[in-house]
Amino acid sequence: MPDFTPLKHPGALPEERRFRERVRRDAFPITFEALLPKGANVGPRLEEIARLECLPHLAAINTPNNPSARVRVDPAAVGHLILDLGVDVLPHVTCRDDTLPGIQRWLFGAHVLGIRNVVVMTGDHPKEGDYPEEKRVDSVNAIELIAGIKQFLAKGLLIPDVTGATARRYMNRFAPPKPPQSIDPLHFFTGGVLIPWRNQEESYMRAKLEAGADFFQTQITWEAETSLDFIAAAEARGLLTGEVPILVGTSPFKSTRTLDFLKHNIPNVKVPPNVEARLRGARNVAEESVQVCVETGLALRDGARDRGLKTKVGLHVMPMNETRLGDEVVTRIVKELRA
User: Fold this and answer.
1) What is the pLDDT of residues 288-303, one digit of tens each?
2) What is the C-alpha separation between 325 and 262, in angstroms, rounded?
3) What topology does CATH give the domain 15-338?
4) Whether 147 contacts 212, CB under 8 Å
């Protein structure tokens, strides 16, 4: 069992256990994306999370929002319960599924439940999910939603309406409030998605930083150098000054079938050819994938230090498919990286 006492009041995390503090204080912060159940029976999953040996060493647990567009329990509701285990949570909020009023309703409810962090993302396309014929909503894009949270809700204003029917990057389509609709300010430590190997990613990162992003988590990779090169170049250009942490995503998985799914169905997953060959040639793919994740984490940790980067670099572990496998693996990865 964890070596700490669960809190008596859900949502009442001490400041020193908040992600904002942990990501600043931990030498190499690690977050873990917990697969959430389908339906409302969350008790068994909470018990599994509570038994994680590495729980005190995690900076936070991500609770995804219908990953791969497949229906699962609400990330803020479960996040509220995870807080009582003494670890902070990073619920995902997507542009895919809801209107601007609906997104704000969700944010209000998350805040009521003690949630103080969110990760903003576009959201996987419905074609891979439970309702492939559903249309995306996308009334705002991820950059605009970060701006809405940081530049409006945080200042005690509802996010204004937007002009134009289609969300487009680089455009601030927020109309002036008519008249300004005041609320009690909502403060979220707000993250965005970063994909260092994507074309024009520096422009996307700049826009998210200008919108107010407080940290980034990247898409899945099993290679450290591209992310470190990207961070070093951004620091040299003055875009990153050491104030915004970046947690690089990696994923352990069970079989080459999952590797194929990641490679062909999840956008912007980086599979280096040498790593793909190594995994396809392994006798035990699950074990080899864990080792690759550990090596990626070590290369990130040591590479950031050896390069003298100002940016706090960490690891975001996103296990695929099997809950039990993911829970076992994250503890192994954390132990290796804390050795």
Assistant:
1) 999 999 999 999 999 9
2) 17
3) TIM Barrel (3.20.20)
4) yes
